[in-house]
Amino acid sequence: MAYSVQQRTQEIGIRVALGAGSHTVRNMIIRQGMSIALLGVAIGVASAYGLTRVIASFLFGVTARDPVVFVSVPLVLSGVALLGVWLPARRAARVDPVVALRIAHRSRLRFRPLDLSDPEFCYGLRQVFPGAPYLVGLRRRFAGSLSE
Description:
76% of the residues lie in helices and 0% in strands.
């Protein structure tokens, strides 16, 4: 969820710049995240209930359709999901629109397509993956075939 909010920084910045309140942004993020989480919990409960005969052989000290388990586990999972959604939503509600738009503009300027003929790119790639010396030969092979 935090990654999703980070990817949507520009959109959130535009919403805030156009007048959306922090509570509106926070509620939007929480609603979207919890809808996914609750759908997963519902599918999990339905699957567990449907597979109780298979699961019964693995359970010790608990009946297959124990109502305490079928109520407490979804509640705990929903609470953890709410916490996992609430923290990024709180951060999204504090977005400064000017900073968000500036960051989005800079990230667009830094984007370059993958270019194996660029020696700077290959040097950076070797720094990240030092065990891949074949990339230099690959770059030379592609650079040679492009010049022909």
